[in-house]
């Protein structure tokens, strides 16, 4: 069996100075932002807030200056993300574009698409969604059926995507399509296209989740025409490209900081003299501290240019486990104590309905464990 090492990583002093700066900004910008909204730190979207972050240079911090980035370190970016998520800031508008779409454009279309689009992402003005999953293709992405055909005018797309987070507020989608002929190997003949969400023939319909909220969508393509130069990377290389994109998608601290508001409410409500509270919450905080070390380690790997795919899968899997246990812990400790309509009761109710999705989005538990097992040489 091989080892999966995530080297410990400590934050240099400039990171702590930056943390103080971000905290001061958030204290002012979010002074009136209620706990009921902070609990939505994955889905809260506010384009004006995204623009404010862009003005401060806190979107695309590590990117080259020619794309609107600030050429700061991965660990500095980590600190900013950690503070935003812990505060429950409304980052969902720009989150996907910053976390993965821009990276793909800079790597695979550095001269054509990236200069055109990435600076607007860095300004917090351009939002993306991910068009991978389809009605019968989630874990098994190689079975997608949405197809793009090359014509003289451009690529013509027909098909359907589902669970597309934020499609209704996005300017662009990076869409995984089948471009090869049938009869080929399943993993071959897939490509990624940049799709302007305003293109005729593209329709976004809401899918309401079990919280009763509209965050993801169904997106249908009826003869959607996309210019030739919107092909990202190489035709037919979509499978490999998506693998790299998913590694970015799984690599951030949002994979264990999605229900932090519930933890904060529990800490506020805990009785310091009650050993039951102290032991249960002490265990949770210890788990968070461990996940944080692991997550910073993943950022360290990114900073060194290493492939974090397996380590990121491990953090995501363990982060989901810890977060999914939180509602039960809260119920056990505060079920009879939390006043109805209190911020704690609200955070408990919201988080209980939100957590089941944590081990689905961005790759299911079984799929991640398959990746980890492969990395360990077990399969
Ligand atoms: C909140 C949320 C947001 C999302 N946002 C997006 C988005 O923006 N864009 C997008 O493209 N998709 C998005 N998704 C979809 C998500 O990526 C898929 O739900 C996920 O990949 C699983 O696919 P599926 O739902 O089709 O389930 P399936 O793949 O059908 O899986 C069903 C069950 O079978 C298990 N399973 C499947 N294959 C295997 C296997 N080989 N071995 C063992 N077990 C297996 C799975 O682990 C799971 O438990 C989102 C999902 C959620 C919940």
Describe the structure.
- The chain has helices spanning 13-29, 35-38, 47-55, 74-86, 92-108, 113-122, 238-249, 260-269, 275-303, 309-334, 343-354, 365-375, and strands at 128-131, 147-150, 155-161, 172-178, 190-196, 202-208, 214-226, 231-232.
- The chain is of the alpha+beta class and 379 residues long.
- The protein has 3 domains: 13-126, Orthogonal Bundle (Butyryl-Coa Dehydrogenase, subunit A, domain 1), CATH 1.10.540; 130-238, Beta Barrel (Butyryl-CoA Dehydrogenase, subunit A, domain 2); 250-375, Butyryl-CoA Dehydrogenase, subunit A, domain 3 (Up-down Bundle).
- A 4-stranded mixed sheet has the order 1-4-5-8, with helices on one face. It has a 4-stranded antiparallel sheet with strand order 2-3-7-6, with no helix packed on it.
- A hairpin with a 4-residue loop joins strand 2 (147-150) and strand 3.
- The termini are close together.
């Amino acid at each position: 069996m091989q080892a999966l090492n995530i080297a410990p990583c400590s934050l240099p002093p400039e990171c702590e100075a930056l943390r103080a700066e971000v905290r001061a900004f958030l204290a002012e910008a979010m002074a009136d932002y209620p706990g009921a909204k902070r609990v939505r730190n994955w889905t809260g979207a506010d384009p004006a807030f995204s623009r404010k972050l862009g003005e401060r240079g806190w979107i695309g911090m590590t990117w080259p200056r020619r794309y609107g980035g600030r050429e700061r370190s991965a660990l500095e970016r980590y600190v900013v993300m950690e503070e935003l998520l812990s505060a429950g800031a409304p980052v969902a508008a720009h989150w996907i574009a910053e976390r993965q779409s821009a990276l793909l454009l800079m790597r695979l279309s550095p001269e054509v698409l990236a200069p055109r689009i990435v600076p607007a992402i860095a300004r917090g003005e351009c939002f993306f969604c991910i068009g991978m999953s389809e009605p019968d293709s989630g874990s098994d992405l190689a079975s997608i059926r949405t197809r793009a055909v090359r014509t003289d005018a451009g690529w013509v797309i027909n098909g359907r995507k589902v669970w597309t987070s934020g499609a209704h507020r996005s300017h662009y989608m990076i869409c995984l399509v089948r471009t090869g002929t049938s009869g080929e190997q399943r993993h071959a003949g897939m490509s990624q296209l940049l799709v302007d969400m305003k293109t005729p023939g593209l329709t976004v319909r809401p899918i309401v989740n079990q919280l009763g909220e509209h965050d993801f969508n169904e997106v249908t393509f009826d003869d959607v025409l996309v210019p030739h130069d919107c092909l990202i990377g190489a035709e037919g290389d979509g499978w490999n490209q998506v693998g790299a994109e998913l590694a970015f998608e799984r690599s951030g601290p949002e994979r264990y900081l999605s229900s932090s508001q519930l933890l904060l409410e529990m800490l506020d409500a805990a009785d310091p003299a009650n050993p039951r509270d102290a032991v249960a919450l002490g265990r949770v905080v210890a788990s968070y501290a461990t996940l944080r070390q692991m997550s910073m380690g993943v950022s360290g790997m990114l900073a060194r240019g290493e492939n974090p795919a397996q380590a990121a899968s491990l953090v995501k899997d363990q982060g989901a486990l810890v977060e999914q246990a939180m509602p039960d812990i809260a119920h056990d400790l505060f079920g009879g104590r939390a006043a109805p309509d209190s911020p704690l009761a609200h955070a408990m109710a919201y988080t209980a309905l939100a957590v089941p999705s944590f081990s689905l989005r961005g790759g299911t538990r079984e799929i991640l464990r398959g990746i980890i097992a492969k990395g360990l040489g077990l399969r």
